[in-house]
Amino acid sequence: MNAFQKVFDWKTYIFTALAVISFSSFVAVLFGQTIPNIILAFFKIAGEYVVLGAVFVFALLWLLKAKPHNRPKEYSVVPFDVFGKKSKIEGIRTNFKTHDVAWSFMKQYKEAYPFYNFALVSDLPKSDKPTIFRYI
Q: pTM of the full predicted structure?
């Protein structure tokens, strides 16, 4: 009976039970909390860097696109006849300082002279020939 009692000693059984329970709780904590928290923290930080990088790229592209361009200092309205050749209409203003004023006059000229077409033209600083901005 003494040998049988040594095999099923309650102290060994309790120690084994505690070891199994503590190992299973260790595995549960490891795979249930520790590893997911590390992975989630990594992806949270990585996501923040992706969003921050996208903001910087957008800001850089916006700054490059919004940089000041060389705008012409003077605009001209050039009338064209029915055959598409440059012509001259007496009594109309053809030189302007701003784009908006030239465009407004050009629309008025189109209503007043329906058989003519008009082009809003200017010499750009880096170009050797005139550039047409609008044509009606």
A: 0.50
